[in-house]
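Revision sheet: structure tokens.
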Amino acid sequence: MTVYLDVVLLENLCMNYIILFATGYLMKIKMKQLRLIVSSILGSIYAVIAYLEILPIYSSFGMKVVLSILMVYIAFKPKGVKILSKQLIIFYLTSFVFGGCAFALLYFVRPQDILMRNGVYVGTYPIKIALLGGIVGFIITYVAFRIVKTKLRRKDILYNIEITLQEKRLKVKAMLDTGNLLKDPISKMPVIVVEKEQLYSLLPIQLLDHIEEWIGGDEEFLNQIEEKELIARFRIIPFSSVGKQNGLMLGFKADQVEIEKEEGTQIRKNVIIGIFNQNLSRDKRYSALIGLDLLEERSESNELITNPKG
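Predicted:
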């Protein structure tokens, strides 16, 4: 079988470019076409050298790893070893998927014309089949990443939290809301928004059923509250949301809030619980909203205590 080196070079150039482009696209990297092309050319030149067996070292496992690192570095210029490692892993995963798709198409079309030499597939098959394999591989990889990321995102943004108030405890599931920047305007404590229906085990019914009177400063209503020690804990928190500007939310200072994370339990002392009079989730998957600042490791006044999982 006659093998043309220019065809080998062109085929590998196209496949390398598709794989590198897919890697950058999946990782949302700002790509430069010149870098992708130069990296693709390097990979295709290596394929020709390996096929011709000019130097045996070019076919070694170590050399292939070095080539992969060079290609990824040239294409994306990552800042740091950690980022480079992530890009390299995605590059390999994408290469495996693309290679499998391309080989499967080639096998079904012209299996008798496929030849592998030193890890390089050559043959009389049309180049459009190899490119089609790359496109199919890209679609499969993209869909798979979307599914995996969606599942991970749903898992990562839901947290089990436990609110403590005067020796009473309430466990709820909270969703991470990066838009939740609510803070008590006076103490600057962060606010966790919780559905009112979940708070009846912590607060008296008399109070929860007359939130508007509390916010409005109805003195007659305030004088009727039996739990006088609770009054000092309450705050009026201004907020804005879709469809409602300059709103007011009633909140209270909890004794502490425990947040369960993979690395352990975080205990926050200075947290306000905002009382929300509607449902936060249609499917009841969560009943509270927690801000990103409460999950950060940094804390003030030693308010964060982490109990690692043993």
